[in-house]
């Protein structure tokens, strides 16, 4: 096995693109300890800060997406694209990658396009059940496409697809033995059901509003709540910490303990979150964000709901039927068990390893 390997990774714009790339890099680093790693991101996006914090070098391209509404910002897109293709080519020329990995986001388009023109082996990892435009455009250029859902042969060449799942945090691979520790950590009562509310690190305004509006009725069901409001909204909801059986948190570090202690979870439907929840195997009500590209979250959630493995409530319907749907689930142990069993069957715990295997096979081809 060649050790002196140059591995180029590109992905960003959101944590959903960045963290899979980091997980893949970490796995490859364990296999190629002497390898050189370089990330390519979009200037002014979160990867330019997050990737160096996690120990990797990154170069930035001046690239943005196309606005879906009529906007003067779109006038600059062709110039930014040409500039990014030129700069991606320069980065590739200097770094001389043996393999290039894309996890989606603005910068991965120019980077993998220019790498493919130089006949450098490329792999993309598609987290969602409905691919983003960047990965759809790159599909014909790359050698392998790692996916997390069935049915993506509608968008990608079938012979290139490897269903691996999405990389997840290693500490949540088995939370089943951590409940007692988690009860102690969060200072919760054993004899009351525990609802965990997740809105992502920044928070989800609509989910926060739903919980606030229905808080008394939820508590009347003999439920205690751990409510992650997100750091954008904690000041609006921290007063509820004074209420018995309610905890509000801007952010929760110990996600393994949070998952371990949960009885029911309310969550957005980002691809990475869904992959984690499949491993955790708890009953879930998804409230997808309608404000993401191509309505990815609704499509992700439906891929789980269609297997009778979760419930879903659209934001537009939540004011009308949230509390009825929540009551129905919290009072139905049989339904909870069915959802838990079915979502657990969707888990793909070896995703990071299998993606790295696919990358390794491309490295071996070139050497």
Features:
2 domains; Rossmann fold; seven-stranded parallel β-sheet; alpha/beta; 367 residues; 13 strands
Quick description:
With 367 residues, the protein is α/β, with parallel strands linked by helices. It is 43% helix and 16% strand. The longest helix has 19 residues, at 77-95.
What does this structure look like?
The chain has helices spanning 15-31, 47-53, 77-95, 108-117, 133-138, 179-186, 205-219, 234-237, 255-261, 271-280, 296-305, 315-330, 333-345, 351-366; strands at residues 6-10, 36-42, 58-61, 99-102, 122-126, 144-147, 161-163, 193-198, 223-228, 246-249, 264-267, 284-286, 311-312. 43% of the residues lie in helices and 16% in strands. With 367 residues, the chain is an alpha/beta fold. It has a 7-stranded parallel beta sheet with strand order 3-2-1-4-5-6-7, with helices on both faces. The mean pLDDT is 92. It has 2 domains: 6-167 and 349-366, 3-Layer(aba) Sandwich (Rossmann fold); 171-345, Rossmann fold. It is built from 14 helices and 13 strands.
The CATH C-level class name of the largest domain: Alpha Beta
From the 3D coordinates, which CATH architecture of the largest domain would you assign? 3-Layer(aba) Sandwich
What's the Cα radius of gyration? Answer: 21 Å
Enumerate how many helices there are, as a single number. 14
Structural class: alpha/beta
* General shape: elongated
SSE string: EHEHEHEHEHEEHEHEHEHEHEHEHHH
Total separate domains? 2
Poorly predicted runs: none
Average pLDDT, all residues: 92
The amount of beta strand, in percent, is 15-25%
Largest beta sheet: strand ordering = 3-2-1-4-5-6-7
Give the % helix: 40-55%
Separation, N- and C-terminal Cα atoms? 9 Å
The CATH homologous superfamily of the largest domain: Glycogen Phosphorylase B
Strands, count = 13
User: Biggest β-sheet, characterized?
Assistant: 7 strands, parallel
Topology-level CATH name of the largest domain: Rossmann fold
């Amino acid at each position: 096995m060649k050790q002196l390997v140059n591995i180029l990774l590109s992905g960003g714009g959101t944590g959903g693109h960045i963290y899979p790339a980091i997980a893949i890099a970490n796995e490859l680093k364990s296999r190629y300890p002497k390898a050189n790693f370089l990330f390519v991101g979009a200037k002014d996006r979160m990867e330019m800060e997050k990737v160096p914090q996690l120990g990797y070098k990154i170069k930035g391209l001046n690239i943005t997406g196309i606005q879906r509404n009529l906007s003067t910002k779109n006038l600059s897109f062709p110039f930014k694209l040409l500039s990014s293709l030129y700069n991606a080519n320069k980065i590739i020329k200097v770094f001389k990658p043996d393999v290039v990995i894309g996890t989606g986001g603005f910068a991965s388009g120019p980077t993998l396009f220019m790498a493919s023109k130089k006949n450098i082996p490329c792999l993309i990892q598609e987290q969602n059940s409905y691919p983003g435009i960047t990965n759809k455009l790159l599909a014909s250029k790359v050698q392998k496409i790692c996916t997390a859902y069935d049915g993506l042969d509608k968008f990608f060449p079938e012979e290139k697809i490897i269903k691996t799942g999405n990389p997840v945090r290693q500490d949540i691979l088995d939370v089943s033995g951590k409940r007692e520790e988690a009860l102690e950590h969060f200072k919760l009562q054993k004899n009351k059901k525990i609802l965990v509310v997740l809105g992502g690190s920044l928070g989800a305004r609509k989910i926060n509003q739903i919980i606030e509006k229905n808080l008394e009725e939820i508590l009347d069901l003999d439920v205690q709540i751990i409510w992650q409001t997100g750091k954008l909204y904690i000041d609006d909801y921290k007063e509820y910490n004074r209420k018995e059986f309610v905890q509000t948190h801007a952010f929760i570090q110990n996600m393994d303990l949070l998952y371990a202690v949960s009885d029911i979870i309310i969550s957005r439907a980002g691809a990475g979150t869904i992959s984690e929840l499949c491993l955790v195997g708890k009953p879930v009500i998804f409230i997808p964000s309608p404000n993401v590209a191509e309505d990815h979250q609704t499509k992700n959630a439906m891929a789980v709901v269609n297997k009778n493995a979760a419930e879903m409530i659209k934001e537009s319907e939540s004011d009308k039927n949230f509390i009825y749907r929540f009551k129905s689930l919290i009072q139905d142990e049989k339904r909870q068990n069915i959802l838990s069993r079915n979502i657990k069957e969707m888990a793909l715990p070896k995703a990071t390893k299998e993606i790295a295997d696919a990358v390794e096979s491309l490295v071996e081809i070139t050497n």
